[in-house]
Design brief:
The protein has about 475 residues and is mainly alpha-helical. It contains 19 helices and no strands.
């Protein structure tokens, strides 16, 4: 298999050196964890919008979204419609609450409603979910590095994590956001170049694409059937995607950290809503690349259930000319590093703010800052181990892991924000019920993963409301006697 040329390697090395230098630059002037975890709340809204998109666009998007359209069609876009609706709900319901205090993490909002114990439960759920889900993303970039360089899995994971850790450890959230902006431009530019190259390589051009894709139903978007076992229907997409986004952008510290870093509540909303437009266009672009790859490889027979994650990386390495090949590999590195750096900073922020400071520690600002950097390294080691696990089809594996626990987390926030009668004990029972219910749904039913967050949220809310009512009645009865 063809490997990277000297020109490709030079482009890739230039990219890696540039983003590392940008990250290190932002170490200057850091004095406390507000600087490290919130970037002093001075980042413009448009940069936050680009960072939000770059963060949710990991290597899974660049590698596995084309694979979805290659094997199936455009029906994944139904889920993206739900992503847009979910952002509107978060902007209206969650963001005003986040700006009622000086919060560093999403789970401090839970503390104001239910106390420190529930904050710890919510933060622990986030830490577990985010670490596992991003272990899948590390595996995805390792796949690309293996294809491009022909080196082993261990070294592939080590290279990606090591370089990302370097600038995240030093520069904090501000470094993460501004490298995200650069990386978004690189991988979207690379995708557009790949699209043009694919069309140019087809003898019949776009006419051939249209004819072959139409014959195989590749441009089909909507499926209005009611079927709980089908992943991509209109209802699973809009409702399931809405709840998935409410959880990911309203309760997951990975995204909430950007909303908290905005200069004002208004800027936070602008950033989130602008990201909705960008994310739709982006998924459409990568799905289109998948259709073009299907046409390019002669409409191959598709084996149901088989992973086609390697099809786009193989095209890059085998078919792209020197220089462009290096640009595309750099683009995939960019997508991987933007998400990984965000994850490292979010995991560290929750660990320090939600657990270390929970126990009444009043460390000096410089000491907390130093501990925050070391916690970033600790989580880097955890992701390294998880990146060596074999997960199966990558995009769906990453989303499925998050979807199992997101329901209980979103349910907790819904109980806290919308139901005043919920007690801390009732909320905790609801969370455990939601998580247990989702484990049953995942392993004992054929329900598609796109419904997981909605189902988990409903279980958590219903059990939480009932458990709170029972607790209040019990307390009242005891007080009477």
């Amino acid at each position: 298999m063809m490997r990277l040329s000297g020109l490709d390697l030079a482009i890739l090395m230039l990219y890696l050196a540039a983003v590392t230098a940008i990250g290190l630059w932002f170490r200057r002037g850091q004095h406390d964890i507000r600087d490290y975890f919130l970037g002093r709340r001075e980042t413009p809204w448009w940069a936050l919008a680009l960072s939000i998109v770059a963060t949710e666009t990991s290597t899974l998007t660049v590698v596995s979204t084309p694979a979805l359209a290659f094997a199936e069609n455009f029906q994944f876009l139904q889920l993206v419609l739900g992503y847009i609706v979910g952002r509107v709900v978060v902007a209206l319901l969650f963001i005003p609450q986040f700006f009622r205090g000086e919060f560093y993490t999403a789970y401090q909002l839970i503390e104001t409603r239910f106390g420190a114990r529930m904050k710890s439960a919510a933060a622990a759920t986030f830490l577990m979910t985010r670490a596992l889900a991003d272990g899948v993303r590390i595996t995805a970039i390792a796949l690309v590095v293996q294809v491009a360089f022909g080196i082993g899995e261990l070294w592939s994971v080590a290279i990606v994590l090591g370089l990302t850790l370097l600038y995240t450890f030093q520069g904090g959230l501000k470094a993460v956001i501004w490298t995200d902006v650069v990386q978004l431009g690189i991988y979207l530019g690379g995708a557009v170049v790949a699209l043009g190259l694919l069309v140019g390589k087809l003898p019949g051009g776009w006419s051939e694409v249209s004819a072959v894709a139409a014959a195989h139903g590749k441009f089909q978007i909507f499926d209005f059937t009611w079927d709980w076992t089908t992943k991509y229907t209109f209802w699973a997409g809009v409702l399931g995607g809405m709840f998935l986004t409410m959880a990911s952008h309203g309760t997951d510290q990975l995204m909430v950290q950007r909303l908290l870093a905005a200069r004002s509540e208004r800027d936070s909303k602008r950033a989130l809503l602008a990201s909705a437009v960008l994310v739709f266009l982006q998924f459409a672009l990568f799905l289109l690349i998948g259709v073009l790859l299907f046409v390019f490889y002669g409409a191959p027979a598709i084996v149901p259930g088989q992973s086609y994650d390697a099809v786009f990386p193989q095209f890059i390495v085998q078919e792209m000319p020197a220089g462009l090949r290096g640009l595309m590999v750099a683009a995939i590195f960019a997508a991987a590093m933007s998400t990984t750096s965000s994850t490292l900073n979010a995991l560290a922020s929750s660990s320090i703010v939600d657990f270390y400071r929970l126990h009444g520690e009043t460390a000096e600002p410089e000491r907390l800052l130093r501990l925050s950097r070391w916690m970033t390294l600790v989580w880097g080691a955890v992701l390294f181990v998880l990146g060596l696990v074999r997960w199966g089809p990558l995009l769906e594996a990453g989303l499925m892991i998050a979807s199992i626990t997101y329901g209980s987390l979103l349910g907790l926030f819904v109980l806290g924000l919308l139901h005043r009668g919920t007690t801390a004990g009732g909320a905790l029972v609801g969370m455990f019920a939601g998580l247990a219910g989702m484990l049953y749904v995942r392993f004992a039913t054929p329900v598609a993963w796109t419904w997981y967050v909605l189902v988990g949220t409903l279980i958590t809310v219903l059990v939480g409301v009932v458990a709170s009512w029972v607790e209040r009645q019990t307390t009242a009865h005891l007080e009477e006697h």
